[in-house]
Every structure is written in C-alpha cells, then in structure tokens.
Amino acid sequence: MFKQTEIIGVQETFDYVKSASEEKDGITWLKPLGWNNTYVLSVRPETAETFNLTNISDLVAVSGDMILGSDDEFINRMDGLIGLKELYLGLDFSKEVSMDQSLTYSALKDSKIDVNTSYSTDGRIAKFGLVNLVDDKNFFPPYYVTPILKMEFANENPEVVKALEELGGHWTEAEMQVYNLMVDEGDSARDVATLMLTDAGLLEK
Predict the structure, then answer these.
(1) What pLDDT, in 10s, does the model give residues 11-54?
(2) What are the C-alpha distances in Å from 38 to residues 19, 88, 151, 161?
(3) How many domains does the chain contain in total?
(4) pLDDT (tens digit per residue) in 156-168
(5) What residues make up the domain containing 115?
(6) Would you tell me the crossing angle of helices 189-199 and 173-184 to the nearest 10 degrees?
(7) pTM: predicted TM-score of the whole model, two decimal places
(8) Which ranges in 97-188 belong to alpha helices (H)?
(9) Could you tell me if residue 59 is inside a domain?
(10) Residue 1 is assigned to a structural domain of this protein
(11) CA dist 83 to 5, 66, 137, 203, Å?
(12) Nearest alpha-carbon partner for 56 in 89, 23, 25
C-alpha cells in the first residue's frame, strides 16, 4: 500500500502506517486493541519441549527432520515461506505439504505434520494446546486490530475517539484464541464480545 519493503519493528511499522495514512489519505489510526493476528509457525508442546523451541531461529537446526503443513499460497509466496527461508538461513523442512489452511491444525495435532502456519489468534491453537514460535527476526508484518477514522470526523467527534481509545491494549493473542474458540464452538459473537468487555473491566458484570 505504501511501497514499504524494508523489515522494521512492530512499533515502527505502526508509526509509519499511521503517519502515511494521515498524510496521504486523511485517515488516522487509534490505539490498537492489543492482539496481533499475524502468521506464526506452530508446533505441538512436546515438540517444543523436546527440541527446546521458543522462536523460529531455534527451529532452523532441526527443521530438516520436520514436515511443514501449510496452504499453497503461503508456500509459494515471497512474503511467505520463500522469504522466510531467505531470512532464516538454514530453515529447510524435510517435506512441505500443501493443504487447506483449516486442515493444518488437526494434522499437526494428529502428528501428520510437525509444524504448521497458523493465524496467531486462531481458536484451534488454544483447543489443541499448540505452541506459537516467536518470529524473532520480525519477518511477518504485524496485523493489529485498530480503529481507524477519517481525521475530519475524529476532530469533530472527540467523544467517539475517547470511547474507542479506551478499548486499546486490553486483549492478548492468547486471550483472543479462547474467545475465537468460543465462537467456533457455537457461542454468539455478540455474547463473546460482551464477555470480552466484561473481562477487560469495561462493562460491569
């Protein structure tokens, strides 16, 4: 969108996008709600424990003995597996299995693959107790949920800005996994959203 290709930190990315949006489009970004729904590589907890895996760099040395499961788009994109391998030199899986993204979670749980590409707030991470590896070289861009407003509207409606800013920073990726799982398993989105606000102390019980 802004022709930015250099890998920069999370806060730098937010500041850059906010500034560019205000300058080019007259749109301002408010405080992020807290969670970053970006790509992650996930493993089973026993795999993380056996190989002492905390971040993607830890995975490099043992990746040759592991099978990756992911959708075809991620495997073949420069901003997916191709670029990830270029940044994390030596990351080379014994096999890369292309499958529908939604199937990778159960495949990982059932040991049909050893690593999958996940979305960091997916409810199945919590359901299956998977471990997300930290992207310690910041390859994946941040995807924070953030209210955005036209600057003219924001300037004319400070009470709206204040209300939205009060939502900022309240929910983590791990918490969102649980909330998303609740919706996946049948709870209404409205009820879960109400619970989120209550848990964060923004609504009275």
Answers:
(1) 888 888 889 998 999 999 999 999 999 999 999 999 999 999 99
(2) 21, 18, 27, 26
(3) 2
(4) 999 999 999 999 9
(5) 39-133
(6) 150
(7) 0.84
(8) 104-109, 123-128, 151-156, 158-165, 173-184
(9) yes
(10) no
(11) 12, 19, 12, 43
(12) 89
